[in-house]
């Protein structure tokens, strides 16, 4: 509404001014029927702009977006002139020009400045300022000359200069966008864009100066003009800088609040423009430019999570502003200018168009000697593009509109003509120059892509093609996508080279001078491509440039993750930008080292302040007469009184100075002098008291000397203040000067107030020094992390192996050098290093917690409100971490043992290590371990740094050791492998493998180590081998994870992964049981790494030597065990093999997919716990089982033989959930869940169900309720064996996630069967008050064929069988067998110390009854009694809980197709569905 009112007012204002000057500007004003007309125009223009953008991108046109909008605006303006309905929506052109600038300029200027690379802008600042200020002034003057001598309008010089300043404002939006699109020189684009930013502000300043001269009735001197220009041009940037600092300070106090941070930046841009332009009467454009540049230089003050959204937000605003402003410009041209051009005006307009570019070319040529030797230089080609790309745009037109609407300017003579010619030049530059700039670049050869860039693009395309092929191969094996139209998929997924065209191929091959198919003339062998020296240099420079860019991205990524501070991120990015300025230059290591160099002023200030904090030492007995005076002098109240007197004295000094100039205080001078006398007397009394008490010690204090100086100056001051006025009078000039000087000298007394602040000043200096060292340490650590990340990508940056090898070597050298310096810094300042490591560890944990919250939100486990509360709590901790202390106290050495992973929380082991460890001290250059020595104990570095060297040339050669091996005169060269600092452990692998030392360990500093002898460690290994994870297992696991990190980082599937991410993935890893001769790889294993020992692929005879990665194509390994050389295999489980979340230590590690239960909770609490700890991979796989995890020590060799023959092994996972639910078991399990909560105090009777299933079938009966009334999940693992022999096996089963409601599973689309009968008894409540179900497998002989078994099974299905406990007992009694109830068996087993598995229970009962263990005969007899054939497998499910009143019998039939299982009542009870 405000815009509409302003438009109406401006229209009336234009009519009034037009009538006053008798001008004829068509101004048609119609009543707007709806106030929403202007809003409709605004949003309609945005829609048209979006459509235009999509059309241009869809047709791949080299047409500037703004040019099309300008043409559309002109067409809309022409249409509005003929249609009154359309004109209603075009009323926006009557907007006040000042308002037009105030709306759009802050957005456009701030977005452009904020998006700039500040380093590049500062490097080109001389060129930009030269073109924007003196260049614009020269162009304005030449344009004024052209207008005065070419036009016949009789303009004055002031009017000509104002017209020249309007036309000198460039707006090269289209040209800059084109340069960025084609990848041209970013330095040239920066000069063009930077000039446009500054000369807009300069043009407005010139315009306002000459507008004032044209419209002012009073004469203005040249000095006033210069001073006014300086005030406007310098004051605006200064205020903008102050506003930027205020804004950045505000933003630094906000953490991850996108709405608040975006709002602050937008408000800051508009407030700065308004305050500077309206209140300060300065250049608002220049102020906003400085605001944007200052915020861009310190954009790390913005939350890293918000920075991307903030940048996109301003891009969107700039896009909308450009869309609206160019449509409005087109409408203004068509409605207000095009119909006012008559006769000679057309000639003047085209002449002025050509003249403007001639003048711009002359200006650039005039300053070219300076432009060539400053910044990045300027070639003649770049000068030509800059001349042709000097477009005019919205700023020029807005200034012309101000002239056309000014009531003090003659519109017919000047105002209208300015609008006509400026509109014509704007139209022609956009239509002609903007559309032909690309052709100009092609003619000049500036759009050509260098061969190095083409090779880099080809290398990237090969990487993408390889990824594409791997993805296609993977998807072709998917059971749902196997029959897709893969030819269409391949066609639709092709990625073409954007730099390659058919016409250019021959020219490129010729220019590269590569013998693509060169062959050796003697043997016809294919030769590698041969590159010229220039090509190698260009390829190296391009690879280095891409490496620097990757490092810069790595530093920002570390900042986003909270691993780098704001200051360290800015420093590292600055180093990369400096290096990228010079071709072929890496990051200067000296710049990195300088980041932790302390400013020389800080240590000097620290020493000075430290000396000033001095308490005078006085040896005085309490029996002395001076003791009361001493206590009075040392009391804090005494010093407080003195400081109060000093403050009052300073107030008296202020009034005394005022009395020298203010007549009101003239007659009170004597009072001020008397007060001064009193204060000096107080100082004298203080001096006397301290001298009496302290005696000679008084002069040793610095502040006491200041007290003496105050008294020495104060006594003459008192004398002259009373004597001179009495002798010569108060009004005497000399008396006035002397009195004033003495009063000013009294101000030195205020420095005594600094004495109590000295401890705080010293603390501030210490914190500043710690902060500087902390930033430097952070810079070094971030640099090392960046080099480690980028080194993996070097092979993708250059296709030439020699170049890639050279880049890797340079990266390794730099990384090791910085690591060494960081180690030295840690030794000198361990408290700071400890603080940084602690902050990084805290932030890493908080990052994982926040990612976990996001995963839970994405999976729907958490509601949005709950997730926001948790995320807010984590982010508050992240925010507090930013202000954490820069140093921490060093903990005692024994506390470091708690951080050793393989010690865990074993207090006994920790005490043993403390008892047996020795504290050793080494000096600089001492050799701790020599390469080739026999493996000894373990060294734990407490403080200091050591260097690892080796004769293996895999490291960096640093020196030539003068140690000659015996019997030879050769000199051994040492190569650096790594540096290790406090917290690192040396000798773990030597302890485990008993191999000779592979490296020499030399002290780089004085080092303190904790040493545990080999004998003590071996004794610890033998002693602490009980429990779920013996000590040797933990040692191997820690070493295996450490080795696997480097192995996995070299795999293509882990490209782009950080070390932290890989380490986190390895937290789920486990060591396989390699006690057997073979090892089977199955689908539950994501990654298999051979850590130690050797293995062979029996199918391909391929040998693997640890450490090495086992490819996914390997299905089986023969373990080649050597005495004293254990085979160690690390397994990273897949989704199917992921262990259930639980307490660490509850997992029993095993072979293959075997992981024992991690949860021993009852069904009720297990279901509740599962909702809290269920991870993302379970939810994604919500329709699948997590597979069968089994223990290799329970696995017989038969399963491996079956696997070799193509049959699934017993560890094969069961993936697909069954179809039909067991409603009756739901109700039973509901009672179990309800009864389990009461603990062991309530022992519920057992409920037993028998489920008959034909033999030769794999049956899985997972039972896990999600709620008391619904089957959802059951943590149950079933291990089956495919052996056909009659035997009975007892298997310890692990809990895992299985989702069925029925007994049918689908493996790879096929139903899996086996020969088993399962018995499911209830599990006793464990000592942890957890309950679980245990399964036992009873195998039967099946003499009949499968068809006979099926027929017998069908006959058995028609027989009614009684399944109550009493009936089973009676059947057993007839055969002379006594079977006790499950509760009695459990109690007896418990007393006998037996395992509670069903097999042992059965065997124990049989033993008590004097019966041999013949379960098959017993089962056959029982089956015969109830009319069941021996081939029928029997599944008995025993569930602890409330016994139902009536038993149920479950009937089954062949499950080869769809499971159809019924429950029939044993005693006539109803079946509950």
Can you tell me about this structure?
This protein is α+β, with helices and mostly antiparallel strands. A 5-stranded antiparallel β-sheet has the order 2-8-4-6-5. Strands 18-28-26-27-22 form a 5-stranded mixed β-sheet, with helices on both faces. 37% of the residues are buried.
Notable features of this structure?
1473 residues, alpha+beta, 5-stranded antiparallel sheet, flat, disordered N terminus
Work out the strand percent.
5-15%
Number of E-type strands: 30
What structural class do the secondary elements suggest? alpha+beta
Cα(first) to Cα(last) distance is 69 Å
How many helices? The count is 51
Strand order, largest beta sheet = 2-8-4-6-5
Which consecutive residue ranges, at least 5 long each, have pLDDT under 50? Answer: 1-33, 508-516, 955-972, 1139-1161, 1163-1171, 1173-1473
Principal-axes shape call: flat
Report the C-alpha radius of gyration, rounded. Answer: 44 Å
Q: How does the major sheet shape up?
A: 5 strands, antiparallel
* Helix percentage range: 40-55%
Q: What's the rounded overall pLDDT mean?
A: 74
